[in-house]
Amino acid sequence: MFFTEQGRVVSYSAHHRVSRESRDLALPPALTGTPLAKQPYDLRHSALSTRLCAGVGVGVDPAEIAERAGNRVGVLLSRYARCLYDRQSINNQRIEGLLSACGQPPESDEWSRPRR
Predict the structure, then answer these.
(1) Residue 4 C-alpha from the chain's centroid
(2) What ranges do the domains of the chain cover?
(3) Number of C-beta neighbours around residue 106 at 10 A
(4) From 1's CA, which of 10, 14, 42, 83 has a CA 20 to 30 Å away?
């Protein structure tokens, strides 16, 4: 929520007007006609997706990201996990690397099978 100088809640229409104006100022002309940051909520979606994706493979706990965003982990993963799409091959390589480092050869069939 945003408040005016008088302490009242900024109206929905004023918030969207300022968002549109800010978007036009912040984005290069080639991007202002695209859906990028078209709605104020898009910024939150982008931030959470980026944090979630950045944490994959480097040990950032999705529970921590969810807590900081004020969401449950299930909500975070169901709404913002699109950044994880098609990462199966990358994850398979990481798992195989970990198993190889532990001296256990990976079972190639197990990691190459498509998920259902």
Answers:
(1) 30
(2) 1-38, 39-112
(3) 16
(4) 83
